[in-house]
Amino acid sequence: MLSELAPMKTSICLLATILGLATGSAADPSLHLSQVRSFDDWPTQQFQFVAEDESYRFISRSYGSGGKQAPGLFVFSKLTGNWMQVMNLSTEGAKLGRSPDPKDALLQVGWDFSHLASQPYVPVPLVTGGAIIFPDEIILDPKTQIYAFRCNSSFKLEYVVTAFHVRKSDLDAAFK
Fold this sequence. Notes:
mainly beta, 7-stranded antiparallel beta sheet, 3-stranded antiparallel beta sheet, 35% strand, disordered N terminus
């Protein structure tokens, strides 16, 4: 699997369709990435597979041992053989969760992402008082062709889940 992973040259990629400038309207809410970055430093250490389908592989990377690497969410295009890092996600149409009630789970770090609703975009990973949170589930709806980037789904409590939505066509355009 790692033999497929190929580094890319560094460049910032802000695309009109990703920003929603070309596709958003009141009747067609813009569900989009805000910024992606292609990079040389592809994630070889301290990474975790999040999801994979016939088009993409999604992985996250933590700070690593001693906090020596930048955390990030990365997407590998099987069509182009290239990697990109998801820098921000749109909050439009997002479901913004909070930490579980004490009766449901005891945690050292709590969170409430409802305040993010006032921001058009949020950086990935999400940051709490003492932790970083990545999507732990990325699911493509075959009917709408929209990915749900779901954070904290492992709690199995819907009020805890934070979910962002990304059109597959926006992701496809980012790799062109």
